[in-house]
Amino acid sequence: MALIAGVDEAGRGPLAGPVAAAAVILPEDHSIAGLNDSKKLSPKKREMLYDQIMNQALAVGIGTVDEKTIDHVNILNGTYKAMRMALGDLDVQPDHALIDGFPLPDQIIPNKGIIKGDEKIEVIQAASIIAKVTRDRIMDKYDVIFPEYGFSGNKGYGTLKHMDALKKWKATPIHRKSFKPVRDNFPTISWYRKHRRIGWIGEKLAALFLMKKCYEIKSMNEYCAPYGELDLIAEKNDEIVFVEVKTVSKEQLGSPELKIDAEKISKLEKAIDSYLMKNDITKDIRLDIVTVFLRKGRPIINHYKGIDIC
């Protein structure tokens, strides 16, 4: 029997975050019940079906294209790229692909577009669910870094809360600059300085930097009374990493990390101890410093690992 892959995307319309696509090949005798357009399913149902699809599919491929690429090539071409990545990620090459909407151009695998295919074709419905859950999980991770924007709820779409946040806090590095509401609310270093948000954006840039290095961001601005705040808590390789972030917006003598003196280290140690006891954590721990230099263009970020703590 010919191997048929269904392909669909999630995230063409949001103002922030990536576009995701999935390609799925299902066996004819699968036992997955309730497949449908992912938009018509509850989050709980999508998660349940996601697990079933991953367990029973002959192959699943996933592709994501970030906001910077979307801004460079536009959202349509970004979506096509994510779909090609998804097909290329399959463990086996299908004989044919069915695409939700229109055919996928410049693709070596023969394919056909199916208008409203996510309402009609099981393999496309399965791909719709995988793409949607994949993207939603990414946006949930971004919500830990940017709670002001409500990404866990709106997933980057232009809801009232999201639009209000754009006006108040301006656009983040994960917003799509080519989308008009984002262009109209893009910040400058002068704006951050004027509104006393240099440290605020520095911490978020540090978190994004670590996230790209495969750290899971567990918490931001964790206050441990009476010792003060832990800027960032992350985890990687079963190790909890506490991160102190230092941000500057202009050239200064010396390095920002040198401002962390013995007294500051002592307060951080006590705050970390308080957090560990409160959360009953027994994993290995580490204290890192991340420095962020804001400038016109891409910021300069340095990561210093393993500051001595008692």
Number of separate domains: 2
CATH level-four homologous superfamily name of the largest domain:
Ribonuclease H-like superfamily/Ribonuclease H
Low-confidence stretches: none
Strand arrangement in the largest pleated sheet: 3-2-1-4-5
Reported by name, the CATH topology of the largest domain is Nucleotidyltransferase, domain 5
CATH uppermost class of the largest domain: Alpha Beta
- Which architecture of the largest domain does the CATH hierarchy give at level 2? 2-Layer Sandwich
Rg computed from alpha carbons, rounded to a whole number of angstroms: 22 Å
Largest sheet: 5 strands, mixed
Question: How helix-rich are the residues, as a percent range?
Answer: 25-40%
**Mean pLDDT across all amino acids:** 93
Assembly context of the chains: single chain
* N-to-C SSE string, H for helix and E for strand: EEHEHHEEHHHHHHEEEHEE
Please give the number of β-strands: 10
- Tell me the span between the first and last alpha carbons: 64 Å
Q: How much of the polypeptide forms β-strand, as a percent range?
A: 15-25%
By DSSP (H or I, 4+ residues per run), the number of helices equals 10
What would the principal axes of the Cα set say about the shape? globular
* Protein structure class: alpha/beta
